[in-house]
Amino acid sequence: MSLADLTDLTNVFVDPAAYADEERFHAACRVLRRERPVVRVESERYRPFWAVTRHAHVLDVERDHEHFRNAPRPLLTPAEMEARAAQANGGQMLRTLIHMDDPDHKAFRGVTSTWFLPGRIRALEDRIRELAVRYIDHMADLDGSCDFVKEVAVGFPLHVILSILGLPEEDFPRMLQLTTELFGSDDDELSRSRDPQEQMAVLFELFQYFVALTADRRTNPTEDLASVIANATLDGRPLNDIDSASYYVIIATAGHDTTSSSIAGGLEALLRHPDQLARLRDDPSLGANAVEEMIRWVTPVKEFMRTATEDRTVGDETIPAGDAVYLAYLSANRDEDVFEVITAPGDLQAARAALQQTGVDVERARDLLVRGPQLRVVDDDAVVDADDPAGDHGLVVEVHLARAVGDLRRVMACTDCGFDTSAGMRRVTEDVVWAKLAAMAEGARTATQRLF
User: Fold this and answer.
1) Domain segments of the chain: what residues?
2) What stretches of 351-440 adopt beta strand conformation (E)?
3) Burial class (CB in 10 A: 0-12, 13-18, 19+), 233
4) How far apart are CA 232 and CA 218, in angstroms?
5) Which of 121, 235, 340, 364 has the CA that lies 20 to 30 A from 438?
């Protein structure tokens, strides 16, 4: 393989547009998995790193906590933004769980671990179901056609997450805007500006908001998650402003983004592969596998980075001490050596998902598809036929997904889900995701029974 060909293939990792072009991205990764599964990537915009594309190699790195660390480079970030961050607050504006290694990681995740136990989530179920019904009713009121991403997939999980934190509803639009600008920094339609200084300003605004929230909850504690974080102590001392604000940010932004991307991308995949949707409707027992398979197919977490503490071999390559490794989850989740079906959203019964089930009941998630309204996907410029027959369930919801899901794919998500098996936070996030999906499905079932 020539250097020019190799550069063209590895550019998919550093070109934000490639994440919106699935055909290009997956075609490049198929070649890399076969011929150069561990490859050094150089780019003018980013510091060099090694991309790991095979599922087995990704897991090898993830499991080797001693020799591959989260710090100091947990995410793929443009070099200019890294330099600006190094000048702020002693080199770090945020210090979330994904930035930490043990022993700090274990200590900090313990701050909220008991709050996220299944019993607590079940206690929130009525509120989550109420929100689910509200969004399903809203979708049903949109004259048979809607932008599903904008009207449901983004708003519903954001509402749930911010309600758990205890934020007032009047602040939700601001949080949505800041979240979009933070994760969409490489997208002209979503970002505030391409100016790195303006992009840093987004992060600073989030920081300021949550510092003020911490001060309020310390003075006026409640039963919400924000109060737990604000009043937490480690070694007898309260969390400092950076640590508390970072905790809020990872929950408010990452927990929302992963769920909305999975809901939207999962539904799009089923609509574009109606045979899989039909299987799921015909056999509700596939529901649990379907949820896992949708998350694999969408892979809302595109990458995390690790840094080698000493020279280590991955595949046939030696990663020098101090070099960064890019864990290509989007490639690993389509690895032919692991997943039998990679050209469609998969055999929902037999797909060998990489994600571990957490024990939360997700069977109800199938109700959204089994008993919910008839759905189909239409292009953004399609003309809706008002006289189109409604089908067996009495309602056709035409979902405008093409552009909106493309926008989401352009976002290189910074989240605490995916393959982070070392962190323990993955299990926490999955509990929330499963509970929200199950509650949304139950709400959809209740709403459709009432409507039809």
Assistant:
1) 3-94+101-451
2) 374-378, 396-400
3) exposed
4) 10
5) 340
pLDDT averaged over every residue in the chain? 75
Mean pLDDT over 357-380 rounds to 36
From 145, 161, 200, select the one nearest 178 (Cα to Cα). 200
pLDDT at 117: 79
pLDDT reported for residue 340:
66
Beta strands in 232-302 (DSSP E): 233-234, 237-238
Helices assigned H by DSSP within 46-141: 55-63, 79-87, 104-113, 118-123, 125-140
Residues 124 and 161: their CA atoms lie apart, in Å, by: 11
Of 122 and 213, which is predicted with more confidence? 213
| Residue 73 structure tokens | 């480079």
Contact 378, 403 (CB under 8 A): no
Name the nearest CA neighbour of 356 among 259, 429, 427, 285: 427
Asked if 320 and 314 touch (Cβ cutoff 8 Å), the reply is: no
β 49-52/38-41 pair status: antiparallel
Residue 202 CA to residue 436 CA, distance in Å, equals: 27
> Tokens 């949080």, residue?
175
User: How far apart are the C-alpha atoms of 105 and 254, rounded to whole Å?
Assistant: 17
* Whether domain 3-94+101-451 has CATH 1.10.630.10: yes
